Amino acid sequence: MKEQLPSSFGVVGLGRIGGGLARQALGKGIAVVGHDTSEPPDELVDAGLEYIDDVSLFAERLDRPRVVFLYVPAGAVVDEVCEELAPVLDDGDVIVDGGNSYWGDSLRRYERLKEEHGVEFVDCGTSGGVRGAEQGACFMAGGTRQAFEVIEPVLKALSVDGGYVHCGGPAAGHFVKLVHNGIEFGMLQAIGEGMQLLERYRDELPIAEVLRTWTNGSVIRSWLVELMEEQYRAQGGTGDIPPFVEDTGEVNWLVDDAMHMEVPVPVIAQSVMQLLASRDSDQTWARAVALMRHGFGEHPFGADEGVEHHRKSSRLGPFPGA
């Protein structure tokens, strides 16, 4: 029996992730209504995206219960979009924040939207990078069971097999995604340090081939090692990569939360310290981490003013308590 696909959903923010998910959905025959502050790429419109220049139009263009995903920068922008959307939606409709918002902020958004507008809010961490958005992502959702069941068909259609989970109540999804990002930092740092050891060996090693072998049957095989090999070959090694590793600051929140929760996270905390150290050093491990981050998320090489601004503005509220 052919699986029933969702009929439609909305997306606010048609950048790398939001646009990639829209493109994947359109390719599967799902109607997508999109909004952004700038005109959408022609390829999305050609693929069937229905672009609207006013979020109020979601009310008439989407089937009920309406589902609208947000892929906008974390911080005040999320609140602004929610305040624009909520009055034009009805009870049972769901706003889904798919970005990397702080889970404490997500909890406050859920409570405010429910109390003031009767609209459901789901915090949904999204992993897999740009490729995942276009080919099959991984979703970690937090919210009421009722709201999750409304968005589940969309998550199932856009994820890899087994690639979505209802983590629990409001804020659980973004908390789980935050922990995920902390683990990612630790793994990136370990691989980067291993690369530095390989490059400092007494004789020249066939590093790209070593990486290829590690992706085939070794204990440390992973997508990150695959990306390391891919980017190492594509960039001709690490020599021309700036060692300055930029980041958007989410794992800083996790280290702070861990201190409030009295949970020791020495590997994750040290990976953040090493990332900061990369900004005043010339180390192979930093170049290697930059290569992998560029591979999965197209993160910039070197310093970036936009990313720095995001890091300083995306978390709004304090730790809300364990």
UniProtKB/TrEMBL annotation:
> Which residues does the UniProt record annotate as the domain 6-phosphogluconate dehydrogenase C-terminal?
173-317
SMART domains attached here? 6PGD
Domain of life of the organism in this record? Bacteria
- Keywords assigned by UniProt? Gluconate utilization, Oxidoreductase
The Gene Ontology biological process terms listed for this entry are: D-gluconate metabolic process; pentose-phosphate shunt
Q: Please give one Pfam family short name.
A: 6PGD
A molecular function (GO) held by this record is:
NADP binding
InterPro entries registered for this protein in UniProt? 6-PGluconate_DH-like_C_sf (IPR008927), 6PGD_dom2 (IPR013328), 6PGDH_C (IPR006114), 6PGDH_NADP-bd (IPR006115), NAD(P)-bd_dom_sf (IPR036291), Pgluconate_DH (IPR006183)
Q: Look up keyword Oxidoreductase and say if it applies.
A: yes
Segments for region (Disordered): 302-322
Note the NCBIfam families from the entry: PRK09599.1
**Family in the record:** Belongs to the 6-phosphogluconate dehydrogenase family.
Its protein name is NADP-dependent phosphogluconate dehydrogenase
